[in-house]
Description:
The protein is an alpha/beta fold. The protein has five domains: about 30 residues, no CATH class; about 350 residues, Rossmann fold, CATH 3.40.50.12780; about 80 residues, Luciferase, domain 3 (Roll), CATH 2.30.38.10; about 80 residues, ANL, C-terminal domain (GMP Synthetase, Chain A, domain 3), CATH 3.30.300; about 50 residues, no CATH class. Helix 6 links the parallel strand 7 and strand 8. Helix 2 packs antiparallel against helix 3, helix 8 packs across helix 9 and helix 12 crosses helix 13. The longest helix is centred in the N-terminal third of the chain and has 18 residues. It starts with a strand and ends with a strand.
Amino acid sequence: MSSVWIEPPRAGSIARARVASRADVEEIERFDLRALLPAWTIVGAIEHVAAGSPGKAAIVALDRDDPNRVARSFTYAQLVGALRATANRLRAVSAGSTPVVSLLTPLLPEAYIALWAGATAGIANPINPFLRLEHVTGIMNAAGTTVLVCGNEVHGEGAWRRVQELRSRVPTLRAVWVIDGSGADSFERQMALASGDRLEFEASPDATRTAVLLHTGGTTAAPKLVQQTQRGLLLNAWCSGAWQGSRADAVVANGMPVFHVSGATLLGLCPMVFGQTMLIVGPDGYRSPRVIDRYWDLVEAHGVSISGSTPTTAAALIAAHPARRAPARYTHFAGGSTVPIQTAREFEAKFGAALHEVWGMTELHGGLIWNPAAARPRLGAIGIPFPYHRARVVPVNAGDAAPESTSGSAAVLAVSGPCVTPGYLNSAQDQDLFLDEAGTRWLITGDLARIDADGYVWLRGRSKDLIIRGGHNIDPLAIEAALVTHPAVLMAAAVGEPDRDKGELPVAYVQLRPGVSASEAELLAHCRGEIGEAAAVPRHVWIIDTMPLTAVGKVFKPALRQDATERCVRRVLSEFGPCEGLRVNVREHGGGLCVELSSAGAHQENLVARLRCALERYAFRVELAPS
């Protein structure tokens, strides 16, 4: 038996693996994937854990004001009882129809109970509560929401403060259950009205039916609802454990939201199916400065061995803490946007724990390509694919397929396997999402990549124009649509400008109409009034004489990205004082951008070295040219 197995597959139990290489992946693939789990429904998988460890802590949630204090907790027996009771009550209030349960919640145990009970009784639909109300109602109406589970005023800001407006805007909505509420509509009271001893309805045994509708991150424009299945969620959760750690004694810190695949699957469902303990760091997750400030204390106090975050959070931890050693068993994953190599280096140098980059999509039920915890991460690579899945690259205009594994010039990453979504709820949005070839369906990710001889995938940029700010996708069309409503604007284009903390920040370029004028301040104020999400408001609006266009009249965004990068570099350069004779050149490199530095002579070599060190905190490539 390969050393990949901690507990090999056997009937009636969960298999546990520790992946370090592609050879380990091949060993796992010798088994039918159905042998990996004792049950292929979410409630069934958690019931299996509860049967063997009923008193073990399943979810421990820390207090908002004092992250050192436990606010609430559930054992596995309590969790299963709550899941069954909530699912039973959802069916009871739905009068025979399939309940569609939308969630507008902070990061609380009840959010996970509602998520998994909703997926059991019908369809669950987690929503970002910080979206503009029009986007929230658009998602709910597209999903056909019948029950809303939400927070209330005690949980701070969020769309839950406008529940009455939601009631009037969503005609299918029948019930609103409020977490920590005081009336008859409180979530806790509704849960108490049903039995948690067993499911009182015949749950669908079809693990491939749609169980979750999760909106993509880029919902500053029209929402896309991704169909997710219990099979896809459970397989993704199992594979995540094989990469990050599958032992039952692990404690997994979770500060990612329920409406993101990291919070829902990687750090949520994964520890549950392996019988681990999920530690919720607080209702605000990693958005809370208190959590960042006390992070390593709570890691040690609660014995955290696994955690995951965006690169932005990893950078915040670097900035907030002096050097200290993380626990010996501690593993930290980062994804949602590109991890700058310098951030990975600083994290390990400061805390003694490697930063493992991961990559995934909502359309893949979670992560799919990871740097495994059992191997040294390859900085700059996103890792190797999960078992039962394949990665390849195809031409940018996917017609004829490229070879399965290729190095050299970048092409678009495509993946196949059982974690690939059946599609968007609105099938018209599936256009260009899939490539069907020889009986295999490939999902076209939109990311430029190459695959090396060891099976590691290296991203080289994005064919899509999404701006990724700290792991959050911002649709540039929403910014552009807002700007062109200004009477002075003729054309507008939004791109991402490199940022050392967030990865990217949105910036915009506009060409004004002839004979009119407008200032940057005026255009920024206009954006704030038109764009529904603060994170999507551009950092700058630059007015240019002529918008760069292609031969067919489309805006040529590569030129704008290059200009935004040059402006970023010039700002960094200005922090170093007079730099006469120092030359900066930004050029395309392998699907991304490269900043090339050169000096007028040997006397500036120290300055160039310092500048290079500062620029390596960004996601672009930095090179030194001969003097």
